[in-house]
C-alpha cells in the first residue's frame, strides 16, 4: 500500500506550529508523506531559523499560503490577523490541495488541522477529505471552547462576544480546576473588537469540529484526568516532545543560540535559574527591570532568554550596570534550545510564562516552576502547575500590577528550599515518561490514530 499523504495546517503562532510540526515528524517516522502548511510570513521565519534545512525538507514538505496581510503589518494584532486570514486562507488552502491532487504526487488522504482552525475543517469537509483536529494546548481549554453553549445558557457569558456577565470562578465539572471568567482566552485583549473576532472564531470552530473524525491533543490522561473524563472523545497523544524520539525540536521563529549549552556545562548541578517567556510576552520597562534586579539579588547563576522584541522600548532596557555586575553568573541569549536546556542537569528551576509547550517541557524534565503568565491560556496553566500538580509557585503583584524584585528573590529561595515540591515534580516526570512509552495511554492512542489513517 502507498504511504498516506497528510496535510497539516497550524494556527499561525509559534506555540501552535512547534507541536504540530513535531507530530508531522512522528508521522514521517511511520511512513507517511506530510505536507506542512504555514502562512507565508511564518514559513519564512521557520526556514530562517532552521539549523538544517535540507534535513527537514527530506522528511516534511514545508509549504506556505498567504495570510492576507502585507509583510510589514503587525501580526501580534490577532484580531486583524484573524479577519485577514479568514478572508484569504480558506480559498488558498483549497487551491493548494487541488494543485497537489492534480499533480503526480500522491493525493491528500487526511487533513490534520489545529483545533482553533474551524475554517480549515470546513475546507476538508467541502473537499471530502478525512479530518483530524489537533489541539496543541491543555485539553481543559479545548473543553472550555466546547462548553460555550452551556456557558451562554447558564448566564455566565453573553452570546455576542463571550463577555462574562460578572467576574467569578467557575468549574466545568466538579473535578475540574477552577477558571476565572476574566481569564478566558478570548478575554485577554483590551480591544473589544478583537475579543469579538476571537470569540466568533471559537464559535465557528465549535460548529466545524463536528466534521472531524478524530480529536487529538498534546496532553495526557495523567496530566488532565478530569478534562478527559468530561470529554472522553478527546484523545491525548502527548506530551509531543522531540526529546522523546531523540530528535530535534523544529518550528521556532528565531534561530537558537546553542552556545548556552556550553555555558550550562560549566555550572554546578541544579544551580541555574532558567528564565524564558515564549514568543509572545512583552514587558514594560518597569517589570523588565524588576525582573533583572530580582535575578541579580538571588546571587545564583541564571540563563535568561531575552527576545529582541520582549520589551516595549528596547533601548537601554537593563538596569544601569546590570550586565557588568552579573557577567560571571548570568547569561542572556536571544533564543535558546529550550528542550535541551530543560533537560540539562545544571538547571534548578524554570521561571516561565506558562505557555503549554513550556509547561509540558518543564513537567517532562521534572523541573519546578516559578509562574509569570502573560496571556491567554497561561493563567489557567498556572493553576495546573501551582494548585493541581503543585510543582510550582506564583508571584504576588503590587497595587500597580508589578512583580517586584523582592518578591522574585523571595519566591526563588522558597521554591529551591521546598524538597516536597521538587519531589512532586520528579514524580510527574515519571508519569509523563510512562504514558508515551510503548504500552502507555498516549502511545496506545497514537497507535490507534496511525492505524486509522492507514486504513
UniProtKB/TrEMBL annotation:
CDD domains: GT1_Gtf-like. GO terms for molecular function: quercetin 3-O-glucosyltransferase activity; quercetin 7-O-glucosyltransferase activity. Signal peptide: none annotated. Keywords: Flavonoid biosynthesis, Transferase. GO terms for biological process: flavonoid biosynthetic process. The keyword Transferase applies. It comes from the Eukaryota. Coiled coil: none annotated. InterPro entries: UDP_glucos_trans. Belongs to the UDP-glycosyltransferase family. PANTHER family: GLUCOSYL/GLUCURONOSYL TRANSFERASES, UDP-GLYCOSYLTRANSFERASE 83A1-LIKE. This is UDP-glycosyltransferase. The lineage of its organism: Eukaryota, Viridiplantae, Streptophyta, Embryophyta, Tracheophyta.
